[in-house]
Design brief:
By secondary structure, the chain is low in regular secondary structure. It contains 2 helices and 2 strands; from the N terminus they run H-E-H-E. The protein has helices spanning about 1-10, 45-50; strands spanning about 20, 60-65. It has a two-stranded antiparallel ribbon. It is globular.
Amino acid sequence: SLEEFFNRCVVEEEKGLYLKDWHAFLHDENKSYYDLLDTFVDDWLNWYYKLSSLPDDYKFIYIGGQETCTALHHDVCCSYSWSVNLYGRKKWLVIELNE
Protein backbone atom coordinates (compact mmCIF):
# COMPACT_ATOMS: atom_id res chain seq x y z
CA SER A 1 0.00 0.00 0.00
CA LEU A 2 1.01 3.62 -0.38
CA GLU A 3 0.95 4.03 3.40
CA GLU A 4 3.36 1.11 3.80
CA PHE A 5 5.69 2.63 1.18
CA PHE A 6 5.84 5.94 3.10
CA ASN A 7 6.38 4.13 6.41
CA ARG A 8 9.28 2.19 4.89
CA CYS A 9 10.82 5.38 3.48
CA VAL A 10 11.48 6.73 6.97
CA VAL A 11 13.26 3.59 8.20
CA GLU A 12 17.05 4.08 8.11
CA GLU A 13 17.77 0.72 6.43
CA GLU A 14 15.18 1.41 3.71
CA LYS A 15 16.43 4.82 2.54
CA GLY A 16 16.48 5.20 -1.21
CA LEU A 17 13.12 3.54 -1.94
CA TYR A 18 11.58 4.79 -5.17
CA LEU A 19 7.99 4.31 -6.32
CA LYS A 20 8.11 4.23 -10.11
CA ASP A 21 5.33 4.15 -12.74
CA TRP A 22 2.46 4.14 -10.25
CA HIS A 23 -0.80 4.26 -12.22
CA ALA A 24 -2.74 5.96 -9.42
CA PHE A 25 -5.68 6.97 -11.63
CA LEU A 26 -6.06 3.71 -13.55
CA HIS A 27 -8.64 2.10 -11.28
CA ASP A 28 -10.23 5.22 -9.83
CA GLU A 29 -10.46 8.24 -12.13
CA ASN A 30 -12.36 10.13 -9.41
CA LYS A 31 -9.28 10.38 -7.18
CA SER A 32 -7.86 13.86 -7.06
CA TYR A 33 -4.23 14.04 -6.00
CA TYR A 34 -3.78 17.46 -7.58
CA ASP A 35 -5.60 20.02 -9.73
CA LEU A 36 -4.58 20.53 -13.34
CA LEU A 37 -4.17 23.92 -14.91
CA ASP A 38 -6.53 24.46 -17.85
CA THR A 39 -3.55 24.28 -20.20
CA PHE A 40 -3.00 20.60 -19.30
CA VAL A 41 -6.59 19.33 -19.22
CA ASP A 42 -6.59 18.29 -22.91
CA ASP A 43 -5.10 14.82 -22.42
CA TRP A 44 -4.86 13.54 -26.00
CA LEU A 45 -2.40 10.78 -25.11
CA ASN A 46 -4.98 8.99 -22.94
CA TRP A 47 -7.96 9.31 -25.32
CA TYR A 48 -7.21 5.90 -26.80
CA TYR A 49 -7.30 4.14 -23.44
CA LYS A 50 -10.47 5.90 -22.35
CA LEU A 51 -12.25 4.63 -25.49
CA SER A 52 -10.86 1.10 -25.36
CA SER A 53 -11.25 -1.73 -22.89
CA LEU A 54 -7.48 -1.93 -22.33
CA PRO A 55 -6.54 -1.42 -18.68
CA ASP A 56 -3.74 1.09 -19.10
CA ASP A 57 -2.98 4.80 -19.17
CA TYR A 58 -0.12 7.26 -19.52
CA LYS A 59 -0.59 8.90 -16.14
CA PHE A 60 2.38 7.96 -13.99
CA ILE A 61 3.35 9.11 -10.53
CA TYR A 62 6.88 8.74 -9.21
CA ILE A 63 7.70 9.17 -5.53
CA GLY A 64 11.22 9.12 -4.18
CA GLY A 65 12.85 10.06 -0.95
CA GLN A 66 16.21 11.60 -0.35
CA GLU A 67 19.03 10.38 -2.57
CA THR A 68 16.77 8.67 -5.11
CA CYS A 69 17.15 9.21 -8.82
CA THR A 70 15.94 8.13 -12.24
CA ALA A 71 18.45 7.06 -14.84
CA LEU A 72 18.80 8.95 -18.12
CA HIS A 73 15.67 8.24 -20.16
CA HIS A 74 13.13 9.67 -22.59
CA ASP A 75 9.37 9.83 -22.44
CA VAL A 76 7.78 6.40 -23.08
CA CYS A 77 6.10 7.59 -26.31
CA CYS A 78 8.80 10.07 -27.28
CA SER A 79 6.07 12.67 -26.88
CA TYR A 80 6.12 16.07 -25.27
CA SER A 81 5.03 15.02 -21.81
CA TRP A 82 5.02 17.28 -18.77
CA SER A 83 6.53 16.60 -15.39
CA VAL A 84 5.95 18.44 -12.18
CA ASN A 85 7.68 18.31 -8.85
CA LEU A 86 5.02 18.70 -6.15
CA TYR A 87 7.25 18.65 -3.09
CA GLY A 88 10.93 18.87 -2.35
CA ARG A 89 13.68 19.52 -4.86
CA LYS A 90 14.72 17.76 -8.04
CA LYS A 91 17.78 18.31 -10.17
CA TRP A 92 16.95 18.15 -13.89
CA LEU A 93 19.35 17.57 -16.75
CA VAL A 94 17.83 18.42 -20.13
CA ILE A 95 19.71 17.30 -23.21
CA GLU A 96 18.89 18.68 -26.66
CA LEU A 97 19.74 16.38 -29.52
CA ASN A 98 20.51 18.05 -32.84
CA GLU A 99 19.96 15.73 -35.74
